[in-house]
C-alpha cells in the first residue's frame, strides 16, 4: 500500500477536455469559458470527476464539478456507465429527502462532445476523508480530530443513511432493480455474480471470491427485510464535510433498490478495510471509530429498524469490494503497472479478511 503505484484513473488529456467542454458550454451560455480545470486527488477508479470554474455573467454557479463516464475502450472498472441513471437518483434524493446532494446543472447523454456522457453539478465546498493514504493513517484532518469530533461525524454520517432510507418512498426506487427474477436482494447478488463473470472473462478466476459467493448462500437471511433506496457506495470517503457535518453526499453510480443492510454492511466494512490495512502497516488506526455495534445501534435508534443478518451483509460488502479490487488489479496489469501473481487471490488486498469472513471467524477476532 505504501509503495505500490496509484492505479491510473484516466486516459484523457485535460487540455483537450477543457477545449471541448468550453465548446459544449458555448451552446448553453454563449461566451462562457472554462478555467482552472483540475482532477481532484480523490478521483475515483470508475467514472472521472473534473473540477473547473465557469466564467460567464449568467453562470448559475462559478465552481463546478463534472462527472464523466469512463472511456469504455480504456479497460473500465464497470461494464456500463449510466449517467442518466445517476442524474435521476440525485434528483430523486434532492426532491424527496433532506440529504445534501450537489445541485445538478446539466446532463449530457450524447457521447460526442467529450467522448462519453456526463453531467455538470455545482461544486461542493468542504473536506473529504482521504483514501490515499487512508484517513485511518496519521497525518490527515480526520485522524487529527478529537474523539468527540469524530463521534459527531460518525453520528451525522449514519443519520444520512437513516434519512435516505426512510424518506424516499420505496416504489420510487424500483427503477433501480436489475433485470431478473426473485427478491431485490436476490437480483442484487445475481447482478454481482454477472459482474464477477465479466471481470474474469478470459482471465484467472478467484477461488476466494467464488468461495465467498457459496458462503453467502449458506448465510442467506430468512427475512431479507424491505427494499429501500440504497446509496450503494455508502462510505465517509464519498461525503464532503463542512466541519464534521455532511455538506454533500457524492458518488451515486452504485445506487440500488435493496435492503437497508446493503448500505450498512458497506459502511461498516469499508471502514474496516482501511482500519485493517492501517494496523497491518504498524499504526493503530482509529479502532473506536465506526464500530459495527455502534453503527447498528445508532441506526436502529434513528429508524426503529434493527439491522439484521449483518454477518451476511458485511461478507457481501467485502465480496463486492473484492470483485472491484480484482478488476482494478487486472486493469493495472493491462497498463503494465503490476504483474499478475500465480494466485489471483493475492491481487485482493483484503484477501485475509475476506477468507476469515468466509470461515466465520472475522468478527470474533475483530476489535
Salient structural properties:
367 residues, five-stranded antiparallel β-sheet, 9 strands, 42% helix, globular
Compact description:
Helix content is 42%, strand content 13%. Mean pLDDT is 92; it is low at 1-9.
Fold and architecture overview:
By secondary structure, the protein is of the alpha+beta class. Helix content is 42%, strand content 13%. A hairpin with a 7-residue loop joins β2 and β3 (63-68). α4 (147-167) packs across α8 and α9 (310-334) packs antiparallel against α10.
Range of strand content:
5-15%
Q: What's the number of extended β-strand segments?
A: 9
Helix content: 40-55%
Ranges with pLDDT <50 over ≥5 residues?
1-9
How are the strands ordered across the major sheet? 1-2-3-5-4
Largest sheet descriptor? 5 strands, antiparallel
Work out the oligomeric state of the chains in this entry. single chain
- Helix- and strand-based class? alpha+beta
Amino acid at each position: 500500500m505504501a509503495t505500490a503505484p496509484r492505479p491510473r484513473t484516466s486516459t484523457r488529456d485535460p487540455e483537450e477536455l477543457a477545449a471541448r467542454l468550453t465548446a459544449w458550454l458555448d451552446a448553453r451560455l454563449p461566451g462562457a469559458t472554462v478555467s482552472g480545470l483540475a482532477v481532484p486527488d480523490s478521483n475515483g477508479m470508475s467514472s472521472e470527476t473534473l473540477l473547473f470554474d465557469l466564467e460567464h455573467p449568467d453562470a448559475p454557479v462559478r465552481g463546478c464539478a463534472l462527472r464523466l463516464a469512463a472511456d469504455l475502450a480504456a479497460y473500465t472498472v464497470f461494464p456500463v456507465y449510466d449517467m442518466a441513471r445517476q442524474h435521476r437518483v440525485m434528483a430523486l434524493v434532492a426532491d424527496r429527502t433532506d440529504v445534501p446532494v450537489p445541485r445538478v446543472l446539466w446532463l449530457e447523454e450524447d457521447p460526442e462532445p467529450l467522448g462519453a456522457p456526463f453531467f455538470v453539478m455545482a461544486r461542493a465546498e468542504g473536506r473529504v476523508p482521504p483514501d490515499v493514504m487512508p484517513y485511518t493513517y496519521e497525518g490527515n484532518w480526520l485522524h487529527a480530530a478529537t474523539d468527540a469530533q469524530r463521534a459527531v461525524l460518525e453520528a451525522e454520517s449514519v443519520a444520512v443513511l437513516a434519512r435516505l432510507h426512510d424518506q424516499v418512498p420505496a416504489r420510487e426506487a424500483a427503477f433501480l432493480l436489475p433485470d431478473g427474477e426473485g427478491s431485490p436482494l436476490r437480483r442484487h447478488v445475481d447482478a454481482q455474480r454477472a459482474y464477477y463473470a465479466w471481470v474474469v472473462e478470459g482471465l484467472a478466476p478467484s477461488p476466494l471470491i467464488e468461495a465467498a459467493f457459496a458462503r453467502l448462500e449458506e448465510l442467506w437471511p430468512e427475512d431479507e427485510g424491505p427494499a429501500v433506496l440504497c446509496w450503494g457506495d455508502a462510505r465517509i470517503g464519498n461525503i464532503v464535510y463542512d466541519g464534521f457535518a455532511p455538506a454533500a453526499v457524492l458518488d451515486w453510480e452504485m445506487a440500488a433498490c435493496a435492503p437497508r443492510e446493503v448500505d450498512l454492511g458497506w459502511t461498516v466494512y469499508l471502514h474496516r478495510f482501511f482500519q485493517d490495512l492501517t494496523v497491518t502497516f504498524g499504526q493503530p488506526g482509529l479502532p473506536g471509530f465506526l464500530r459495527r455495534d455502534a453503527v447498528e445501534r445508532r441506526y436502529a435508534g434513528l429508524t426503529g429498524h434493527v439491522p439484521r443478518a449483518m454477518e451476511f451483509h458485511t461478507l457481501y460488502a467485502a465480496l463486492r469490494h473484492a470483485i472491484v479490487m480484482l478488476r482494478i488489479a487486472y486493469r493495472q496489469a493491462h497498463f503494465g503497472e503490476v504483474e499478475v501473481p500465480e494466485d489471483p487471490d493475492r491481487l485482493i488486498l483484503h484477501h485475509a479478511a475476506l477468507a476469515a469472513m468466509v470461515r466465520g471467524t472475522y468478527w470474533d477476532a475483530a476489535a
